[in-house]
What we know:
Strand order of the largest sheet: 11-12-13-14-15-16-18-17
Number of strands: 18
Bound molecules: coenzyme A
Largest sheet: 8 strands, mixed
CATH architecture of the largest domain: 3-Layer(aba) Sandwich
Amino acid sequence: MKIRLEQPHDWHEVENLTREAFWNIYRPGCTEHYVLNQYRSNPDFIPELDFVMEEDGKIIGHICFSKAEIALNQNKIKFKSWTFGPISIHPDYKRKGYGLKLLNYALGKAREMGVGLLCMEGNIDFYKHAGFDLASKLNIHYHDMPHEEVVPFFLAQELLPGFWKGHEGTYCPPKGYFVADENPIAFEAYEKRFPRKIKSFNEWQLPPFAEKAKLVMQSKRLTLRPWMDSDAGMLYKYASDPEVGPRAGWPPHKSAEESLEIIRTLFSGEGMWAVELNETGEVIGCVGYLPATASNLEIEENHAEVGYWIARPYWGMGICTEAMQKVVDYCFNKKGFTVLWGDYFPDNPASGRVMEKIGFHDTGELNYCSRLQVGSDRPVKIMKLELPTTH
Ligand SMILES: CC(C)(COP(=O)(O)OP(=O)(O)OC[C@H]1O[C@@H](n2cnc3c(N)ncnc32)[C@H](O)[C@@H]1OP(=O)(O)O)[C@@H](O)C(=O)NCCC(=O)NCCS
């Protein structure tokens, strides 16, 4: 095993290692490799503390450090400190002692360079073995938490004893750590440099993702899951097709930025799922329901309206029917709706057919939907599905 400084020719390999190490751990997919990619050109990055670990002739570990600040006296004074991360060990080499070896080596080098105080976010069960403890014990608070709160994942260590001099202050992670959330479209483009991997929501992830994991539904060919910012590029690719949106009452998307905005607004509400192909992880459509308050139709409180679209290359394969069957089951079994409504333009029979195959019947009514962005002047056919009596 060897530890050495990272070199420019290692960059891509190390970013891929970081991606492998963090994939699906804290969120679906991960962003740490992009943070690292962007951070190397940040003035706070410390190239002298940017190490790789090699074993069996390949890079299996990486750690890097950067400068950080702690605000003292209501932000009036900035106290110099440091942080580190991401730290990565390849999944094949985890839980074999490599991480601690790399960390202790790097901490020794940091101390030699005069790094006096480190703050970071991580699991204390691991980092206590390298001398870290709760930052609250040093009176260092976490930026978006009340001061009196002990934040279990916020840790600190005085590498040079007495460096902190018993101050009290507030730490905010360096700005570069949020780069993927701030630039999801650039991040998605960057992701294309790496082998395709399937993102998944899991109950062990950070609270917002763990919460959303409960909404994930699976069928033979599909995963229905909440939308994510990083879907914007793929959404734009298919929702910009002029043959798709207008059939469902909305205009084609004009840019990836517009698609991102739609993900963050319309698609972040209740009852909207991205349709993902299990085989490739590609997002190829959107299915869901609108509760009475958001429906295009005048419907009762415990009724809902269904909606859907599938990317054109995937039409006619039963994909929409497969996905909507899941949504219908969810509406009846989980949400307790008693009636589901659907509507479609008469010149879009494929949509009517999807509903028919799921059991909707034609009410014979025609209606105008004033809330539609496209086609509010054209009548739609109204379809209805009642809760099956076996329920
Ligand atoms: C409507 C839409 C979601 C269907 O998706 P899909 O995955 O192709 O649907 P499925 O394959 O599950 O089912 C489509 C059914 O329509 C049938 N169909 C397709 N074109 C048809 C046509 N012109 N006339 C009659 N039936 C047609 C298919 O044969 C299939 O029925 P079958 O299985 O009995 O053969 C898709 O065409 C779409 O996204 N359209 C644009 C947006 C839209 O119209 N959304 C609905 C708004 S109300």
